[in-house]
Amino acid sequence: MKSSQPITPKEEEDCLRAIQYATSTVLPFALKTAVDLRLFEIIAESGPGSKVSAAEIVSKLPTTNPKAPDIVDRILRFLTTHSVLDCDLVTDQDGNTRRSYGVSSIGRYFLPNENGISVVPMLNLTMDRRLIECWNFLKEATLEGGLSFQRAFGEDMFEAVSKDRKLANTFNQAMSNHTAIVMEKVLQIYRGFQGLTQVIDVGGGLGTNLKLIVSKYPQIKGINFDLPLVVKDAPNIPGVEHVGGDMFNKIPNGEVIFMKWVLHDWGDDECLKLLRNCCKAVSERGKVILIESMMSELPSTDVVATTTIQFDVGLLHLLPGAKERTLK
Question: Which part of the chain is the O-methyltransferase C-terminal domain (predicted)?
Answer without folding.
Answer: 135-326
